[in-house]
UniProtKB/TrEMBL annotation:
Species this protein is from: Lactobacillus pasteurii DSM 23907 = CRBIP 24.76
Residues spanning the signal sequence: none
Alphabetized GO MF terms: DNA binding; DNA-binding transcription factor activity
Pfam families for this protein: HTH_1, LysR_substrate
UniProt-recorded name of the protein: Transcriptional regulator
C-alpha cells in the first residue's frame, strides 16, 4: 500500500465513478483500476461494490477512507513543511544576544520577516560575548550579535555598528565639561567592562598615565549601575549609555577607543533559514 494507491482510492471514493476519478487524476482508467485491484489484493478485502452507475464503498472501504484521508493529508502537510524549510520559510532561529547589543533585536526587519513567514520561531539566548561565542562553537546557537574585541578564528561576520566609548557619571559637574581626556580619566575612580581592560591599559601606558580601576565587571549595564550610585565613572559603549544613562554620559577625547557590534556565525554551510536571516542584516 503506497501513497499513490491511497490518493487513487480516495478519488474514486469521492467521485463514486472510475471514469470521473480518472479524469480528476489525469490518468487513464486501466492504470487506475489496476491500482485499486492491487490495493484490494494487498488488504485482502473488497473496497468497492460495482453498480450499474458507478461504485460505492464497502464497510471495509469506509474504514479505510478515514485512515486514507488522514495519511494523505499528513503527507501533503509534510511535503509543504519540508518545502518551507528548504526555502528558509520555516524553522527555529537560535540567536545569541550580548547585553550591550540592545537595539539590534528585535529590529523592524525581524518583524517583517515574521509577517511574511508566520511559522518561524525565535530562541533568544542572552549572555556576554564569550558565552555566545561558546554557544555558537558548541552548536547551541546559530547566530550571535556580539561586541568586539574577540578572536574571530572560525567565524564569518557582518559589522552592524561602530561606537565610541563614553564616560557615564552621576557627577553633573563632570557632565558640564562636555568631554574628558585620558589625563582627566586617570584622576577618576574608573568602572570598567573587564574585557576592555587591555585596550584601556595600553592607551593609558602610551600616555604615561596610571589609571585606578575602582570596579571591574562583565556587563556594561552593571558598570552603568555602579556609576549611577556614585561609585566611580564608567567607561562603556555609547549605544548602551544612550539607553541606560541618558543625560549622564559624555564623550572621551580618544579616537582609538571604539568598539563594534557584529553578527557572527560559524564558517560552515548555513541552512536556508539562517542564510535568510543573515541577509536581513
Amino acid at each position: 500500500m503506497d501513497l499513490k494507491q491511497l490518493e487513487y482510492f480516495l478519488a474514486v471514493a469521492e467521485e463514486k465513478q472510475i471514469t470521473a476519478a480518472a479524469k480528476r487524476l489525469f490518468v487513464a482508467q486501466p492504470p487506475l483500476s489496476y491500482q485499486l485491484k492491487q490495493l484490494e489484493k494487498e488488504l485482502g478485502t473488497k473496497l468497492f461494490i460495482r453498480e450499474s452507475h458507478g461504485v460505492k464503498l464497502t464497510d471495509a472501504g469506509k474504514e479505510l477512507q478515514e485512515y486514507a484521508e488522514k495519511i494523505v493529508s499528513l503527507a501533503q502537510k509534510a511535503k509543504g513543511q519540508v518545502g518551507k524549510i528548504e526555502k528558509g520559510e520555516l524553522g527555529s532561529i537560535r540567536i545569541g544576544s550580548a547585553s550591550s547589543s540592545v537595539g539590534e533585536l528585535p529590529s523592524a526587519k525581524f518583524k517583517q520577516l515574521k509577517q511574511f513567514y508566520p511559522d518561524l520561531s525565535f530562541d533568544i539566548y542572552e549572555d556576554n560575548t564569550y558565552g555566545i561565542i561558546d554557544g555558537i562553537r558548541s552548536g547551541k546557537i546559530d547566530l550571535g550579535i556580539v561586541r568586539t574585541p574577540f578572536d574571530h578564528t572560525g567565524f564569518d561576520f557582518k559589522e552592524l555598528t561602530s561606537e565610541k566609548m563614553v564616560l557615564v557619571t552621576a557627577d553633573q559637574n563632570l557632565i558640564q565639561r562636555g568631554h574628558v581626556s585620558l589625563a582627566d580619566l586617570a584622576k577618576e575612580p574608573l568602572i570598567i567592562y573587564r574585557r576592555f581592560e587591555s585596550i584601556f591599559n595600553s592607551s593609558f601606558a602610551h600616555m604615561g598615565l596610571r589609571p585606578f580601576y575602582a570596579v571591574k565587571c562583565d556587563d556594561s549595564r552593571t558598570a552603568i549601575l555602579w556609576a549611577k550610585q556614585g561609585m566611580g565613572v564608567a567607561l562603556v559603549p555609547e549605544g548602551i549609555a544612550s539607553l541606560y544613562a541618558k543625560g549622564q554620559f559624555l564623550p572621551i577625547d580618544h579616537a582609538s577607543w571604539q568598539t563594534h557590534l557584529q553578527l557572527i556565525w560559524k564558517k560552515e554551510k548555513l541552512s536556508p533559514l539562517i542564510v535568510r536571516v543573515v541577509d536581513l542584516f
